[in-house]
Amino acid sequence: MNISHIEHLGIAVENIEESIKYYEDVLGMTCYSVEEVPDQKVKTAFFLVGNTKIELLESTSPDGPIGKFIAKKGQGIHHIAFAVDNATEALKIAEERG
């Protein structure tokens, strides 16, 4: 498995609009995309830091994955996505390694 870089950091937030305002007004970043993913019950916002993206994730339903995550653990880092040459092969290797 060859991990080339961190593709993005997924951060669970309770309110995406307030979070966007913080990242823009306090950190000086620019949100370049906001979209809703209905099948994942989530609204996302993206920022670019160098070659790495930050993805804010707000649940659109308490029973969605992000809603459950926030209820259990609160706001914070939800996932780190690594870039690899071959995702299928990387998943197989990771599974083999436990």
Question: Can you give me a brief rundown of this structure?
Answer:
This protein is of the alpha+beta class and 98 residues long. It has helices at 16-25, 65-73, 87-96, and strands at 3-13, 31-37, 42-49, 52-59, 76-84. A 5-stranded mixed β-sheet has the order 2-3-4-1-5.
Notes on the structure:
- The radius of gyration is 15 Å and the shape is globular.
- The longest helix has 10 residues, at 16-25.
- The model has no long low-confidence stretch (mean pLDDT 96).
- 30% of the residues lie in helices and 44% in strands.
- A five-stranded mixed sheet has the order 2-3-4-1-5.
- The protein is built from three helices and five strands; from the N terminus they run βαβββαβα.
- β3 and β4 (52-59) form a beta hairpin.
- The chain is of the alpha+beta class.
Series of H and E elements: EHEEEHEH
C-alpha-based Rg, rounded: 15 Å
> What is the helix content?
25-40%
Average pLDDT number: 96
List the strand order in the largest sheet.
2-3-4-1-5
Shape verdict: globular
**Helix/strand structural class:** alpha+beta
Approximately how much beta-strand content do the residues carry?
35-45%
For the secondary structure, the number of strands is 5
Query: What summary fits the major beta sheet?
Result: 5 strands, mixed
Helix count, DSSP H or I runs of 4 or more residues = 3
Low-confidence segments, ≥5 residues, pLDDT <50?
A: none
- Cα separation of the termini: 14 Å
